Amino acid sequence: MSARRTSFYLDKRNAKFLGVCAGIADYTGVDITIVRILTALGVWFSGGSLLVAYFITAWIANSKPYALYDQDADTKKFWQNARVAPQRTIRDVNSSFRDVDRRLRDIEGYVTSSNRRLASEIDNLR
């Protein structure tokens, strides 16, 4: 079974302690330093109750599969967007397909039009 790219995983490779902050940063696309600072502030202002949630998350969550570490930047960014806002990702993909379809229609219309100069250039290539 392949690893699900839309799940939350502990990021042990980029971890300082248990990989929860690194996993949150990887899941949301937020810089890991910001996540660590917010976690430290949250532990301080919550009186330590956030620390309990941190350890429970580290205990329950799975480690990130090694297959997901070897992604290029575009693939990683796509899956982060898909996790955070799946409807927006679907809308963006549909928009890209509509744009490609429109450009292809324009090219087909230009090639099949009665453009004499284009027709003569094509005939010269033969």
From TrEMBL:
The keyword Transmembrane helix applies. The chain crosses the membrane at residues 37-61. It is found in: Cell membrane. It is a single-pass membrane protein. Residues 8-61 form the Phage shock protein PspC N-terminal domain. The keyword NAD does not apply. Pfam families: PspC. It comes from the Bacteria. Its main location: membrane. Keywords: Cell membrane, Membrane, Transmembrane, Transmembrane helix. InterPro entries: Phageshock_PspC, Phageshock_PspC_N, PspC. Coiled coil: none annotated. Signal peptide: none annotated. This is Envelope stress response membrane protein PspC. The lineage of its organism: Bacteria, Pseudomonadati, Pseudomonadota, Alphaproteobacteria, Sphingomonadales.
